[in-house]
Amino acid sequence: MTLSRPLFMLAITFVGVTGLASPIAAQPATVLSLDFFEFSNPGARSLGFGGAFAALADDATAAYANPAGLGQLVEQEVSFEVRSWNRSVPFLAGGRVDGAPTGIGIDTEPGPIEGQADQNTVDLSFVSYVRPYERWALALFHHQLARFEIQTEAQGQFFDVIPGVPIRFPATRERLEFDLTSTGASASWKVNETLSLGLGVAYISGSALSRTEIYFAFAGDPVAQFEPVTFSPDERSGSLDFKADGSTLAARAGVLWRPTEAWSAAAFFRQGGSIDGELFRQNSGAGGDFSNTEATEFNIPDVYGVGVAYRALDNRLTLAAEIDRFESEALFINEDTVGESGAWEEYHLGGEYADVVGSRLVAWRGGVWYDSRRQGFTDDDGTIHYAVGVGLATGRWQFDLGADFSDAVDTIGLSTIYKF
After folding, report:
1. Rounded to 5, what percent of the chain is helix, strand, coil?
2. Which of 59, 107, 258, 303 is the most buried (most CB within 10 A)?
3. CA–CA separation, 266 vs 262, rounded Å?
4. Residue 233: which residues within 8 A CB-CB, separation 6 or more?
């Protein structure tokens, strides 16, 4: 089937009038995806537990995970962690929004075609120092929450303006750079031998830059719309740019309750905050010539969590569970409120078995957790993560190695803690 020129021009007119062919409706391919955001607790030990650490919080990483846990420490500690993230970020690469494919050129798939943008990052992800006192403790920390750079190319999806009259969204090329850090202080107070409270404040600094270029080389040609876009300069018809660079202060709080030597329970809250930015749109294609700039915000979700942990009296076996809820009005806010994120949950479960080997304590860990965020553009909801880890404690040193594997991201962490 080929589309006649009169019908094609009618479809193009419809697309231009409704704005579908312009950058004002062509949202970035990956910037609106939450798949690359990881909010897991720092420390390779926590990573090996599958992130179920709030009710343990018994080392220097508690400065971020649950400040109430700092009250359990009896010596000064410093902690360092290096992490590697290997991400596979899904995006819409082409296919069909609706209607039956014509079988011409690249119009052969009946549904969306999902692409994958792969990216690897290695960072010094966490540093902390803890100074305990008789009834309280103070900690300083720096946490690299995210840093990555992603590039994508999408051919644009086909859809029927009217039954049997196909038309194609513009092709896009996108570049996304993102950096988010948290630097702060936390403190805990031992109310009594079973209850500790924690408070903290963090200075969150972030920058995000996204540039989406629009390619619409097939306008006015009913045959060319079925051919691949080569992303040459003469095919470019517009762009959409988002940038945000700023900082915000965020509060955090936690509570840790140990009614017995074996059991502990915890709850925590981490405020997210927002970073100011601007959205710049420019078009010189079927939608007409125009440009505009508007203020926008990048929002970091608030996090609420509860957890429970069990330690066997011989300290060999430890089990932990945690539920975290993330809430944000929208990932990006402008006058159109694009990028709705809403809320999602994470369910964590992990365990550790420790034994003395010679003069060293060796711990083997494993965990599993479920992220309820929708992944990609399929009907599948959520992702299951599997975690493993090992730890070695000797003298005043502790070394931990942890790994977390999922379809969206593979994470490896190596951390050390020194007590003095």
Report:
1. 10, 60, 30
2. 59
3. 14
4. none
